[in-house]
Amino acid sequence: MMIFMILFLFAIFSSLLESINPILGYVDEVIVFGFVFAALVKLLFLEKKQVRSFDGWAILTLLLSACFCLIAFIPNLFQGAHTTIFMQAYTFFGMIKFLILFYCGRILIQTTNFTSTIPWVKRIAWMFTWICLVVYAVNLVFPIMAGFDVRFGMSTYAYGFGHPAPFSMVVILFTVLMVFFSLIQKTRIPYLYLLLNLFLIFTAGRSTAIGIYICLSLLLLILPYIKRLPIYIYMLLGGFLAWFSWDRIANQFGSENTEARGVLLRTSVDIAKEHLPFGAGLGMFGSNASRVHYSPLYFKYHISNVWGLSSINPAFITDSYWAMIIGETGLIGVILLICLFITTLIAILRATNGDFKIKLMVAFPFVYALCTSPVDTLLVSGSIVSIMMAVLYMMRLSKEITKKETE
Predict the structure, then answer these.
(1) pTM of the model
(2) pLDDT on residue 405
(3) Distance (Å, rounded) from C-alpha 333 to C-alpha 354?
(4) Residue 216 contacts by C-beta under 8 Å, 6 or more apart in sequence?
(5) Cis peptide preceding 277, ω within 30 of 0
């Protein structure tokens, strides 16, 4: 239990640690590989004891992952690989990192007791929020943070996380945990904490994160008064999020947009059409491998002169998650990955004990990652490790609380 919680905190603050020392940026990969090794060892022990470790959904996910792996590597086999086999494998690892961590984590925490960790996780959440608020207040008088950009007429900040996106993710993650604790302990939802974190989200200036946070806040206002969530509520919140983020979406992906992210997405569709149905192959477009070994596709599709996509300055090549998926794995790869997202979400809900409110909070971090994927690369970044660990943590807690209530 203690090892999991320590790794969980390392994962949450990995982006902050990376800004201190770039080597610490690999802590997420170390955690994933550590989970794989530990899960294999434990699985061998469980099999000896004849304990069931996989359910039908896990087996279905394994089959879909095998098909996705086959589809992803086929173009490199028949068209000639531009990158090394290691970089291809590392690219594929990034695509399914969330799956590896989730299913290995399920095996590892089957008998772990997390109830005693709730009080100190609450203290860490409050400390994080107050420290950020104090830093922001001090920054107004004595500038100690460099502004990232200007949104809503105000400077935005990353609070040492390197980029406002991972900072926003951490704020939302702590908020979800605090709400989850109130639901399983049957206490009042911490509205003050939600309000303070809403302010922090605004100072980060991420439009999608702000929209999702406001949707969550509106949802929490009505949760105490309903026993189930009608479908029209989801539609209303989805409509609000689309309206709130529309300018951002249109600006990023409109045909007149010449910035890297929009160019990458539009070009990936052209690549998928030309390389039907498997895409151009791993390490060929939108991935870190295509940046390390600069892909000839950037020259072929005349985007090597776009700021951030050139061989001299390839800083923005990995700015679009779906551009990588569409360009490298094609139409079939996109369909299989969406199926993997759906099966994982179903597995999360099925493995969570409690009413729909608790299930909603447990699944929310993963849903957040999916919602931000069109404008962010959270699903392949280190942040996905902390998200899946939070999901695992809440899943296990829901089972512990339910077990205690029935005893």
Answers:
(1) 0.89
(2) 63
(3) 34
(4) 172, 175, 176, 364
(5) yes
